[in-house]
Amino acid sequence: MTNEEIIKYIDNGAIFYLDFFADAIHMESSDNGFYKTIRPKKGEHGIKFVYNLRLDNLSDEDAQTKIAKMKSLSFPVWWPLYSKKVQKLLHGNDYIPQPPSGDDEFYMAILPEKQPGTAKSDAIITRVETAEDFKIWADMANLIFATGYQDIHPVNHYHWCKNGRLVPYIAYYKDKHVAIAAILDNNGVASFEFVATLNEYRRKGLARAASAVAILDAFANGAKIITLRAFHPAILLYQSLGFQTYY
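Now predict its structure.
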């Protein structure tokens, strides 16, 4: 698999991740043919984002107009990594991608031949299947990633778990749910998401144990690649699991 193909899979993983947030009855999603936007309905809570940009067939002038419009929305934007046009319009014609460092976001992937072994841990890892367990998982994800706000709705997003597009895992330690991980499965192209541990249980290998189970299960179920996007210090965990950085 080429570097360019892997970068495109990383982009597609980000798009599928944002489609997950958009696909709930409390959210609004729109597509004008050039990009998608998502936001919560009035009175609801959820993320806001612009993503799935399709500007490569436009002239530079028209693409710049669309980019200015997107920026005016004051939403976060997923700028496509694979699009040389968009990257050059953002950074200039002399732009050359550089390896990430410091506070940059890292783009990573793992192929089946690099999958990790089973992690040794005192944790019990369970795959989430019921609505009750999904609420536990979603509440933990919201607590850790969104300070308790319901970015992931414990009811309205459950259909993704039920139909297998989202495969969440919970790590239990001494009978308490303490860490989570998840795979988003886009027809065999997977992305690794929502990996976290409650503060008081960190540095015990619990997230790593949940991660190893999630990754091994994904490959066992036919995934041909698993991608992710992450910042320091989480990349150290992902490197230990076999993920490599691409840019």
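The chain is about 35% helix and 25% strand.
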